From TrEMBL:
<protein>
    <submittedName>
        <fullName>BolA/IbaG family iron-sulfur metabolism protein</fullName>
    </submittedName>
</protein>
<dbReference type="Pfam" id="PF01722">
    <property type="entry name" value="BolA"/>
</dbReference>
<dbReference type="GO" id="GO:0016226">
    <property type="term" value="P:iron-sulfur cluster assembly"/>
</dbReference>
<dbReference type="InterPro" id="IPR002634">
    <property type="entry name" value="BolA"/>
</dbReference>
<comment type="similarity">
    <text>Belongs to the BolA/IbaG family.</text>
</comment>
<dbReference type="InterPro" id="IPR036065">
    <property type="entry name" value="BolA-like_sf"/>
</dbReference>
Length: 90
């Protein structure tokens, strides 16, 4: 199931942000026993490089990433650590 979840997350981020780079990792196993893990939601890390982030503040970049997976948040995604960069910052 988590592979399907990762693929759905990846596909939504790609569609919304057309990233030049997208690395998505499932860190759920590192959080076993954590209270949020009981909900079935996973813990993920994403590194995303997109032209859409040029000139945007960090909080706005994060909002764009969260918006791309908004319907999965708090049900399938418990935590999402985001590194969002513009190409000029790589």
């Amino acid at each position: 199931m988590s592979d399907t979840r990762l693929e759905r997350m990846r596909s939504r981020m790609q569609a919304a942000l057309q990233p030049q780079e997208l690395v998505l990792e499932d860190d759920s196993a590192l959080h076993a026993g954590h209270a949020g893990a009981a909900s079935g939601g996973g813990h993920y890390n994403v590194r995303i490089v997109s032209l859409q982030f040029e000139g945007l503040k960090l909080v706005t970049r994060h909002r764009l990433v969260y918006d791309s997976v908004h319907d999965m948040m708090h049900k399938e995604i418990h935590a999402l650590a985001i590194t969002a960069l513009a190409p000029s910052e790589v």
